């Protein structure tokens, strides 16, 4: 899949990792790849690229963690990770990053 379609990549599992961890790590990998491609670009271009490429991934990640958390025991390792993700400060309407 092309870098220009990040919303599709969230569903692509990370090789060697299984299940929910693969989706989460794959999404984070994709965000870092997007940032790497923008290294050295002017700030206006970075802002535009983040809105176009990163925002769908970030939105999808937080929607996914919220949906997944309803069926997980809060004291399990996955439940603790999802709670941690839900407590993470999210950018105002993604205005800080996207």
- How many helices? The count is 4
**Strand content bin:** under 5%
In total, the number of strands is: 0
- Structural class by SSE content: mainly alpha
Topology pattern, helix = H, strand = E: HHHH
- State the end-to-end CA separation: 22 Å
**Poorly predicted segments:** none
Shape: elongated
Helix content: 55-70%
Q: What profile does the largest beta sheet have?
A: none
Radius of gyration, in angstroms, nearest whole number: 14 Å
Q: Mean pLDDT, as a whole number?
A: 79
What's the topology here?
Blueprint (H helix, E strand, L loop, with lengths): L5 H4 L9 H20 L4 H27 L7 H11 L11
Helix pairs in contact: 2-3, 3-4
Gist?
Helix 2 runs antiparallel to helix 3 (43-69) and helix 3 crosses helix 4 (77-87). With 98 residues, the chain is mainly α. Helix content is 63%, strand content 0%.
Explain how this protein is built:
- This protein has 98 residues and is mostly helical.
- 63% of the residues lie in helices and 0% in strands.
- The chain is built from 4 helices and no strands.
- α2 packs antiparallel against α3 (43-69) and α3 packs across α4.
- It is elongated.
- The protein starts with 5 loop residues before the first helix and ends in an 11-residue tail after the last helix.
- The relative contact order is 0.13.
- The model has no long low-confidence stretch (mean pLDDT 79).
């Amino acid at each position: 899949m092309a870098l220009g379609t990040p919303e599709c990549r969230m569903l692509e599992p990370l090789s060697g990792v299984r299940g929910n961890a693969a989706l989460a790590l794959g999404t984070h990998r994709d965000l870092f790849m997007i940032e790497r491609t923008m290294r050295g670009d002017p700030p206006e271009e970075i802002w535009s690229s983040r809105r176009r490429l990163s925002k769908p991934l970030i939105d999808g990640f937080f929607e996914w963690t919220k949906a997944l958390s309803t069926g997980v025991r809060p004291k399990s390792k996955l439940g603790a990770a999802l709670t941690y993700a839900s407590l993470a400060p999210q950018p105002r309407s993604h205005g800080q990053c996207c």
